[in-house]
Design brief:
- This protein is α/β, with parallel strands linked by helices and 604 residues long.
- The chain folds into 4 domains: 147 residues, 3-Layer(aba) Sandwich (Rossmann fold), CATH 3.40.50; 98 residues, Elongation Factor Tu (Ef-tu), domain 3 (Beta Barrel), CATH 2.40.30; 96 residues, NADPH-cytochrome p450 Reductase, Chain A, domain 3 (Up-down Bundle); 144 residues, 3-Layer(aba) Sandwich (Rossmann fold), CATH 3.40.50.
- It has 24 helices and 21 strands.
- The strands form 5 sheets. Strands 1, 2, 3, 4, 5 and 6 form a 6-stranded parallel sheet that branches. The chain has a 6-stranded antiparallel sheet with strand order 12-9-16-7-8-13, covered by helices on one side. It has a 5-stranded parallel sheet with strand order 19-18-17-20-21, with helices on both faces.
- Helix 4 links the parallel strand 1 and strand 2.
- Helix 4 runs parallel beside helix 7, helix 11 runs antiparallel to helix 12 and helix 21 packs parallel to helix 23.
- It is globular, with a radius of gyration of 27 Å.
- It starts with a helix and ends with a strand.
- The N terminus is likely disordered.
């Protein structure tokens, strides 16, 4: 219809060209048509041609669904990408973007906005969402009377501030005049089905409006599809992990160390999996058979009893060993187990959230059942437990050096409590139950918010006590392979020099060859007064400031609850003292480093 009218208005196309174009356009959906339109317009501009468009062909911009994600471990990113693909499949024009990449000034122009976000620590936004979060709660945030929005929160009910970032976004967008498309959903770690249902509800609600919206024009940026990083990798993913081989399991702490840290080497041969320094490896694991046996004994359930896990039928023993969470405890288990067992004590505890959180902070699932054994059905036990979530470990190697391998630095969770030894799920599996040559299911989780500078001349400062050394081992291997000329400064800390100096020989060799410009260590238990990495930073504050002023990139990896906050405070002090700034200006300085991707964190 439109092409026929163009011919009638003295189109520059011949009749044959119009017929060919009509044949192509008839095979394209609206999204593809918009892309072709933009491509042709751009081509004409590059050729120096001015493009005259007939008035009848000009339409208003199409409605665009903007999907932003704040993600610490990758879950929110994947949910956002799934939502984008589903909406695109319905003909929506969709833009999916990392909150760290989103220009907050564009918020006033949005009409349909979705935010998918996790929550970190004590109710804080994930690292890549901090700048947007601060903007939204500042005086600079615009009024948004035309905005229609939706918020999806991912979290863990084990934590006190469950999905608080999502709640904050929801409340603030409403305060600024936005109208919710559908109600916010706050989802626990086993979020798959609930997220899919929320996604479907959102698309169904928006579909009539997007169906009525005008077709896309060349000015609209269409849905980009899957992430280019993922597309460049193999087909293996969190949903379809690769069955890899364990090459090496080597303890790298001393015999008398209070810590058990393992250097793990895994073969990725045949997988096609690629990773970059800064990425993480997702690890699935099998639960301890002795733990499964004891749990069944305490609940009076036969190991071969059939159960349903979703739509899958299997034995209770297999479900507990391979698919359900038995180490990390959480409030929902206590609530469901209390009802199934009829335990009045547990029911009372479940009703007091503060007391329950304190109770669970030191207990695994088995501890709860040991204290309150009860005869329940196999299906009741399965329904009380949640699906096992893979553990993410910062990758400790560069493929430029190790090729089809991936290395990890794993701190084994091991402690005595209530008269019994306790092991972490994944760390115990890697350290004790998986033999070298054994099979382990893994996938690569990209982390584009923790990357080396593109310019190899740029200096970097790395702060990684304990197992936080892992990504910096990868950084150093990568810079060595690239013959990067930029200076490298590492701060490392642990309790004892003789027992806990992880990768000591490698680091000392890097110092000798000049790759590692400076190495400052803090062994906190070797001195009368405990010295940590933040103290070393303050001691060398003048040099740290000089490096930052010379353009250095700053990285922190490790414990987010205490270490990362202490290091951040030390950096604030350095900026104040060395830069002559007050507290507010110092914070703004670090915020600008973060925005420029010169201050990055990988904390847990």
């Amino acid at each position: 219809m439109l092409l026929s009218s163009l011919v009638a208005q003295a189109s520059p196309l011949s009749e044959q060209q119009v017929k060919q174009l009509q044949g192509l356009v008839s095979q394209l959906n609206p999204i593809q048509q918009a892309w072709v339109s933009g491509y042709l317009a751009a081509s004409a501009q590059l050729a120096g041609q001015s493009v005259a468009v007939a008035p009848s062909a000009v339409t208003a911009p199409a409605a665009t669904l903007t999907v932003l994600y704040g993600s610490q471990t990758g879950n929110a990113k994947h949910v956002a990408e799934d939502l984008g693909k589903a909406a695109s499949g319905k003909g929506f024009t969709v833009k999916v973007q990392d909150l760290a990449e989103y220009k907050a000034a564009n918020l006033k122009n949005e009409r349909f906005l979705v935010i998918v976000t996790s929550t970190y620590g004590e109710g804080e936004p994930p690292e890549n969402a901090i700048s947007f979060y601060n903007f939204l709660f500042s005086k600079k945030a615009p009024q948004l009377p035309e905005l229609r929005y939706a918020v999806l929160g991912l979290g863990d009910t084990s934590y006190e501030f469950f999905c608080k970032t999502a709640q904050d976004f929801d409340q603030r967008l409403a305060e600024l005049g936005g109208k919710a498309i559908i109600a916010r959903a706050d989802l626990d770690v086993d979020y798959g089905t609930a997220a899919a249902n929320w996604q479907q509800q959102l698309i169904t609600t928006l579909e009539p409006e997007f169906a009525q919206a005008p077709a896309a024009t060349a000015d609209v940026i269409s849905w980009p599809g899957v992430s280019q990083t993922a597309a460049a990798q193999s087909s293996y993913s969190k949903q379809q992990p690769f069955s890899a081989e364990l090459y090496t399991n080597q303890k790298i702490t001393g015999r008398d160390s209070s810590k058990d840290v393992r250097h793990i080497e895994i073969s990725l041969a045949g997988s096609g999996l690629r990773y970059q320094p800064g990425d993480a490896l997702g690890v699935y694991f099998s639960n301890d058979p002795q733990l499964v046996k004891e749990l069944l004994l305490l609940t009076g359930i036969a190991a071969n009893t059939p159960v349903l896990l979703g739509t899958e039928r299997l034995t209770i023993s297999d479900a507990l060993t391979e698919q359900l969470e038995l180490t990390q405890s959480y409030p929902a288990f206590v609530d469901k187990y209390a009802k199934a067992s009829g335990s009045a004590a547990l029911q009372a505890l479940a009703a007091d959230k503060t007391a329950l959180r304190s109770y669970l902070s030191e207990r695994q699932i088995i501890d709860v059942v040991r204290e309150h054994p009860a005869l329940i059905s196999a299906q009741q036990l399965v329904d009380a437990l949640r699906k096992q979530q893979p553990r993410l470990y910062s990758i400790a190697s560069s493929q430029a050096e190790v090729e089809d391998e991936v290395h990890l630095t794993v701190g084994v969770v091991r402690y005595e409590a209530y008269g019994k030894p306790h092991l972490g799920g994944a760390s115990g599996f890697l350290a004790e139950r998986l033999a070298e040559g054994g099979s382990i299911k893994v996938f690569v989780e990209t982390n584009n918010n923790f990357r080396l500078p593109e310019n190899d001349d740029t200096p970097v400062i790395m702060i990684g006590p304990g197992t936080g050394i892992a990504p910096f081992r990868a950084f150093l291997q990568e810079r060595d392979a690239r013959a990067a000329s930029g200076k490298n400064w590492l701060f490392f800390g642990n309790p004892h020099f003789t027992q806990d100096f992880l990768y000591q020989l490698e680091l000392q060799n890097y110092l000798k060859q000049g790759l590692l410009t400076r190495l400052d260590v803090a062994f906190s238990r070797d001195t009368a007064e405990k010295v940590y990495v933040q103290h070393k930073l303050l001691k060398h504050g003048a040099e740290v400031w000089q490096w930052l002023e010379q353009g250095a990139h700053l990285y922190i990896c490790g414990d987010g609850a205490r270490m990362a906050k202490d290091v951040h405070q030390a950096l604030l002090t350095i900026v104040q003292q060395q830069g002559g700034k007050d507290e507010k200006a110092a914070q703004q300085y670090l915020d600008q480093l973060r925005i420029a991707k010169r201050y990055q964190k990988d904390v847990y």
